[in-house]
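Following the same procedure, the fold was encoded as tokens, giving this record:
***
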Amino acid sequence: MRFALIWSEAASGLRRNLSMVVSVILVTFISLTFVGAAILMQMQIGQMKGYWYDRAQVAVYMCTATDSSTTCTGQDASTQQINAVKAELASPALAKFIKKSTFENHDQVFADFKKQFKNNPVVDYVTPDLLNQTFWINLKDPSQSNVIVQSLSSMSGVQSVTDQRQYLDQIFSILNAASITAIAIAVVMLVAAALLIATTIRLSAFSRRRELGIMRLVGASNRFIQTPFVLEGVFAAVVGSVLAGLATVGIVKFFVQGYLQASVPFTSFVGVNDALTVVPILLVAGIGVAAVASNIAISRYLRV
């Protein structure tokens, strides 16, 4: 009976402040959607790091006739220089770090170039001899790429040795910046939601100030008076949190899995199961923000 009375008071407050409740729901929904997106982005970055770092290669670019670096003499890398690099890769000092290595000559590199820049006019101006013959090296432990770089960089006929992980680090730093931006926006929106919840509770308490006075006169405890107002804020936040959870799952299912996975099939993406693990976090965050904001708002009002 006591709970029924408390809930009826909360329902009455929700009806009286319907427009404010809808505002709380929308702000909570938007802010927690940003939170969910930020969490999923961090999950995605973690998956992509594991996927791409294991596949990152070290590229050994051989000299072309147009190179003027210290290890090149303005001539294309000779057969002897290419064989010297092959021998170095097969040596006991380096072989223990290498999982696999392949060599592409001018024609093979040019074929890859035409596939990569298909329908791009630049293909018409590039000839095979302008492209570096290249060794592609997969390491057993990609973090040990410096061994290959230091061993081959100074060899005659080698233009440069590049660890592809440096490009991945740049991409992941951009993704991390986007994730941090999403978190910052989410924090601002959560603060706005908390302030809106507090304002809604104060307005609701003010509209029922006579009822509250009577309840205090007949001996109602502060907790009994506060609970309906807290339930109002929590109810609105729960609805917003559920909508944010549905939006998060929908984004993963229809955009990430439905579109990105089909458009970019050569990488790993977060799945619906990952999104489902985020939903409880959003619910807890929404309920926590609403409960704290409601308690602070009504407690301050009752002290007046």
